[in-house]
UniProtKB/TrEMBL annotation:
SUPFAM superfamilies per the UniProt record, alphabetical: Acetoacetate decarboxylase-like
Superkingdom of origin: Bacteria
Leader peptide range in chain numbering: none
Gene3D superfamilies for the chain: Acetoacetate decarboxylase-like
InterPro entries: ADC_dom_sf, DUF2071
Name of the protein: DUF2071 domain-containing protein
Amino acid sequence: MYKQIVEQTDHRTTPIPDGPWVMTQRWEHLLFLHFPLNKETMGPYIPEGLTLDTYEGEAWITILPFVISDMHIRNLPPLPFVNNYLELNVRTYVKRNGVSGLYFLSLDASKILAVMGARLTTLPYYYARMSMFEQDGQYHFYSQRKGKTGSLLQGSYRPHSGFYVPKDISLDQWLLERYYAWSSLGSLLVEVGIHHTKWEVQKAQAEIQAYNLTPFPVQEMTKPPLLHYVRSKRVLLWALNLVK
């Protein structure tokens, strides 16, 4: 299975990372809430070493709740106690030395051991009270971060179309087909390489009751979001690198 995934690279706009992958996860019931916004709003939150990426002059920020399951180190069985948990990440779109990728603004998880493990690898995870359940084909998600920041997401979503593969050079492809991600660590950047088969998505409907997740006022997001739903995706991850 993994060999077949690694060999499928035609859809990538960037080379597959050097060396062997070190971890695999299954991502399930993903909701991509993509919001366009002025690049002047997003620009101040991009660290040195990265440049803001835009599509037809607009910056984008994505809120992504999902389930992580079947997580394990290469050639080892699933990790005990952290094999299945909820995650919520908020990211924007950037480039580094011409390579397109994602910049994580925040990362929340529902299991404290997963958060502690991620922080040991320098990723800026936070523990949050989270829940997800399915009822009549609709997924209900709740996340409230512990501590003073209180980042919140509450809503429900469902797929709303048949499956489709984003067209080349489309906005869908620009948002989804990204295989490097960065986060900040002081004056350095943490880089992780990612690989999976090409995205096959569905359009989605969502009702968001509350959210407070962005570093800027939510009133800056004046346009309606573009939504994608993905049932499941097997993902391969490479070792983290510290870069300037």
